[in-house]
Amino acid sequence: MRKIDISKWTAFILFALTSLQINVSWGQENQPLIPKPVSEFKRSGQFILSGKTKILIPADNTELQTIADLFIGDITELSGISIEKGERKAKSTIEFRLNTVADSLLGTEGYKMKIASGHVLIQANQPQGIFYGVQTFLQKIPAKSAAQVPVACADITDYPRFGWRGLMLDVSRHFFTKDEVKRYIDQMAKYKYNVFHWHLTDDPGWRIEIKSLPELTSVGSWRVPRTGNFGHFQPPFPGEEATDGGFYTQEDIREVVKYAQERFVTIVPEIDVPGHSLALIASYPDASCTQVKYPVNAGFAMPVDRVLCAGNEDNFKKLELIFSEVASLFPGEYVHIGGDEAEKEYWRNCPKCQQRMKTEGLKTEEELQSYFIKRVSKILDANGKKLIGWDEILEGGLAPDATVMSWRGTEGGAAAAKAGHPVIMTPNEFCYLDHTQGENVIERFGILFCCFMRMREVYKFNPNEGVADSSFVLGAQGNLWTEVVPNYRRAEYMTWPRGMALSEIMWSPTGNRNWDEFVLRIENHFPRFEQAEVNYSPAIYDPDIEMVETDAGEYQIVFTPEIKGLDIYYTFDMTFPDKFYPKYKNEPISIPSGATEIWAITYRDGKPLGRLLVITLDELKNRLEKKK
Ligand code: ACM
Ligand code: ZN
Description:
The protein is α/β, with parallel strands linked by helices.
């Protein structure tokens, strides 16, 4: 994807002018935007959206017609107002206009919008820009608004910082239906994401129909049902049927691709090889080095050989079949081939892999991995697609035209960029949406109880950091792995609101980030989620809690709120705290004798806001010991 090249001076002037806009106050007619546009100048007066408003579009442009149809549907959903396409003579109009001479500032995705009384003009070089202008206009309409919606007059100029603004959904560890995937894409497009990375295969399930290899879905898509604690599931019982799972038919895939295209979202399918291939190996046991027959595994505690044998020529024949069908289904230029976490000890102990290394003159198993990826790259080449892989594909040497998705920090991405390869930054510290977003006792668990990622940290992410030549950074991506995301409501909960922070990181200029101001905008968007029945986490209202030890050896309790303006009420007496209980005064609290638990809740303006936090002092002490 192309990065937009804007003149430094133009960007500076726009930024300086935008920064002058202080005293943000949002009345009904002045709703805040996420991601924040490059520039927005408020003017006096109002545009009134009502049932009389007409949309003006050039008659011959089908893409703009589709955008208008989606716009009409979204307006009705937000406000109940029903508008139509119409004619210029109407008194209230919203006009989509494509530039006849391209405006170089806007690139392919940018737009300008002039909201005046009686007329809104959205102008862009391409329909994609109009689509983003429309998303901005929709955010100007408050949730649950009435039959007439005032929108303050303004001039907006807007274009993205990065051309790759992605979200990844893992549909292998838990399967999400075609309709759920569409809903996910619809929501991400509202925040100007343009890449949906569809993690279609992994150990716990194969999710895409491959007509030439039917066992991949008749066997590989199904596992025994388990509910609860992912890390501790029982292996299949003797004779137990594999009834949990599912897959997308090729017809389903085409439908989702079209749905995404209408929203200017490119789908990047991932077929994860040579590691994370248990679902394929369960379907075709000859594919692994050990050739042991395993069931598809939902993360049960059992050691399995889940890597494809690199010495088995038949595996490459299978991959040719798989990737040629995948390439024919997805019109985008990229296919993601995974490449992460291949367990090389199986290759080390496999005569066929070792023979391959000898024949090809490869000295290490890392070079064997590089050999594997280069062969996959040739298969993609033959099918007209470009290869993306996780940063492990750097090991043993990168395939010539590979694009690297950097997940173990940004170092892999920086190294790939230095070697002249395009990169997408998805460091787990800032981009892994499966990580817990607040206090664990409320959020329960994120991935394997290990990792925390408050939205406040996400908002500090800079995809270009540490990269000498940032022109190689295509953009960034949030990744939702689903070991501990057992249903779609939870997928939404883990994605939002952190997905809004990431969207702003990827779209908006870096200069004007202000966490406190961002939180106000985020909160203003929560009612939109409620109205659309999209789940989101209210974790920003729940403080972190920790035990500290003074120099004198006394244990004390400290709360750290994620946002300003919260009152924290607490108690050690195991009763429900409210605003008549002790209030936290931003200094460590001593623990009364005999106490075993602390309970706490946040209030704002005298009203309860956060959830009840109940935690044992033993748990807090354990955490303190672990830190030491
Ligand atoms: C990954 O998280 N294994 C890419
Ligand atoms: Zn092998």
